[in-house]
Amino acid sequence: MADKHLSTQFDSELNGVSSRVMELGGLVESQLRLAIHALSQYSAECANQVIETELRVNGMELDIDRELSSIIARRQPTARDLRLLIAISKTTANLERAGDEAAKIARMVKSIMHNGASRTLPSSDLRVAADLASGLLRKALDAFARLDTAAALSILKEDDQIDEEFDGFVRKLITYMMEDPRTISSSLDLLFIAKAIERVGDHAKNIAEFIIYIVKGADVRHSPMEQVESAVKS
Questions:
Q1: What pLDDT band is residue 95 in, cutting at 50, 70 and 90?
Q2: 38 by DSSP, 3-state: which?
């Protein structure tokens, strides 16, 4: 009976920390959306809100990590539960880094505005990649909530689309800079924004890999897709 009681407490603590991770994910999602809005509207006010939110994201990451450390110290979890706790910690770190990328976008927007960049630059072209990255992060959080390995596998495959958008945007920026060297400074800011968007997609991909690790016990990082599919189906 005591074991059952401890197990119930442990499950309650896991549910609590998982809820905090989802709350953090929602905050980072809104941060990313606001950063992209700041870019599309050249809004310094929105950019400042994104940067201010970074402190809250950082604080939530620290709180979750402290709670995870406390659970590990008090509960001495089994191998599978320890896998879950480690994956939650890494998921939290990836969400915090995605928030860092959103803040980076906001800072680059302010830099572009400060430099008085021409609105002929293809900043609107980043919308497709940004929507893909934001959607991928949302799917990763949904898959994490359900520990859905099929959804995680789908996320890993979709990440290639963001990479393709990034490559196409870089080619377009190079053309702009070659045609008008005066756009080089602001074009480089846009390049950093594009890279930040791509990194958000990478963090969503990392979360998907941790979901597979939790459920299947297989570390599929840096693995070919065929091996990942095999791990999910096993």
A1: very high
A2: helix
User: Contact at 8 Å (CB) between 156 and 205?
Assistant: yes
User: What Rg value do the Cα atoms of the chain yield, rounded?
Assistant: 20
Q: How crowded is residue 175: how many other Cβ atoms within 10 Å of its Cβ?
A: 12
Structural domains in the chain, sorted by start: 2-233 (1.20.58.220)
CB atoms under 10 Å from CB of 62, counted, come to 11
What DSSP letter does each residue of 46-95 carry, written as one string?
HHHHHHHHHHHHHHHHHHHHHHHHHHHHHH---HHHHHHHHHHHHHHHHH
Reduce the DSSP state of residue 132 to 3 states and report it. Answer: helix
Give the C-alpha separation, 200 to 134, whole Å.
8
Predicted pLDDT of residue 3? 42
Q: How many CA atoms lie within 13 A of 202 on its CB side?
A: 14
The amino acid at residue 187 is S
Residue 87 burial by CB count (10 A; 0-12/13-18/19+): exposed, middle or buried?
buried
Q: Tokens 């689309």 identify what position?
A: 161
Average pLDDT rounded to a whole number, residues 62-88: 89
What is the DSSP secondary-structure string of 166-202?
A: HHHHHHHHHHHHHH-GGGHHHHHHHHHHHHHHHHHHH
- Nearest CA-CA partner of 156 in 143, 145, 166: 143
How many distinct helices (H) and strands (E) make up the chain?
A: 7, 0
